[in-house]
Design a protein that fits this description.
The complex is a heterodimer of chains A (447) and B (102). Chain A has 447 residues and is of the alpha+beta class. In chain A, 29% of the residues lie in helices and 28% in strands. In chain A, the strands form three sheets. Chain A has a ten-stranded mixed beta sheet, with helices on both faces. In chain A, strands 5, 14, 15, 16 and 17 form a five-stranded antiparallel beta sheet that branches. Chain B is of the alpha+beta class. Chain B has three helices and four strands. In chain B, 18% of the residues lie in helices and 29% in strands. Chain B has one domain: Gyrase A, domain 2 (2-Layer Sandwich). Classes of the chains: A alpha+beta (447), B alpha+beta (102). At the A-B interface, α9, β14, β15, β16 and β17 of A face β1, β2 and β4 of B.
Chain lengths: 447, 102
Amino acid sequence: MSGRTIRIGAGAGFSGDRIEPALELVEHGDLDFLAFECLAERTIALAQAARISDPDAGFDPLLEERMRMVLPAAHARGVRIVTNMGAANPASAARLVARIARDLGLAGVRVAAVSGDDVLDMVRGGDFPLIDRPGTSRDLGDTIVSANAYLGAAGIVAALDGGADVVVTGRVGDPALFLGPMIHSFGWGMDDWQRLGRGTVVGHLLECAGQVTGGYFADPGVKDVPDLARLGFPFADVAGDGSALLGKVAGSGGSLTVATCKEQLLYEILDPGAYLQADVTADFRTVRFKQTGPDRVAVSGGGGGAQPDTLKVSIGYRDGFSGEGQISYAGPGAVARGRLALDIVRERLRITGVPVADLRCELIGMDAIDRTGRGAGAEPREVRARVAGRAASRVAAERIGAEVEALYTNGPFGGGGVVTSVREVLAVASTLIDRSHIAPAVHYEVA
Amino acid sequence: MILRDVAHIRTGDKGDISQIAVIAYDEADFALLARQVTTDRVSAHFADLPVRSIRRYELPALGALNFVLEGALRGGVTRSLSLDAHGKTLGAQLLDLVIDRE
């Protein structure tokens, strides 16, 4: 690595992530940029549903809390922020960030909203083949609530080139939140596949924040990680050739090693030779890691090829309701009583004619998540019976939990701790849309 | 010995696909993993996991294998009724796969 480097930190790996590690990075990490990744596959559909009932809503619920915490320190140190917390409403989110900046006395803060990912009208008006199941978008009819394309980094680059201190986007590929600052800083060509591929490697390593610094890694006695309650989030010193040196704030919890980096590199990767992003088809096979010091890992290699001709589009749609009930049993015979409870609920739903589908009846502690079919060894001292199913109406879905609760007085001996729930299912299907039909747009709010 | 003695694992998801990365602690053990952690053995290990297909990608430079299990998440994270809709616990269940010393 030689020449100028930029330092990019990761302030969140999901919408509900811890907040104070981001402030630690801003105050003690000597950052140039801080990126917050907060938009899971389904989050934008939930946000769009919120926007339907309130035109000013539809962005991340923690946007205000995060910005109030980091903006003063970021402004004082010249740290520029990039985030997808705009979700289904980047324009409204940008207005809120500008208002918060004014409240905090930070006049002049420039906030950019990057839009263009919302292709709901295009999808509603067209007929696009689904890629993860048979059928087309038209089959989903009026259940569709959202359709968002995974944009690349171009909108973020334009916003940073335009002087934005804070960039708020909707749906972009997660690595683009990090690739944008690299392209802006180094002037990489948008057809420089090698550098875009390497930058995507670095972005992918950072996008889940604490998952590369020892989060989601600990296995006591085998893979120990210190001080996870004070896990430090990562930063990368990125060089103009796309190589990087990863680190975290001295004294923070967690650990950053070649092993934690390898786990994160391969996280959610299908073909490691062709990681499809809007900007590049990245190749992870030649990535190399080297521990250069305590909690410091150098990343080199990796590459890329031409970007795909299409952009992935996630379509959120209403898919009925799911209902669930759970009840616990303990002591000798707990497993047999749990199984009896499941049989009773199954039969009750049948004889009362409740229209439920895909009913799952399982014993937590025995076979609820184990997929090896070997079951538990010795009989456990406690089990939790769980019944979950799908229904077209909320009323029918509620019957599932109600039948579990009725086990208190009608079921086996010694059941306790019933919990029931019902939720509307917002499901996601995917399609591909020609990239020429989709372009980012940027507008600014100034505090 | 078991897989846990020589490798660590990270599990991810994408739609209806579960992905399990198996990473040798010592890159020199890559050949051992490549020989013994086959798609057939992984399929057999997950006897109760219905999958449409299972593919294995090799990453010798990282000492790792990447397994891609299509259809493992019962309609995908957003529709699944499973307690662990993301299938995040699947990889850990592979850690007791028996590995012969060579």
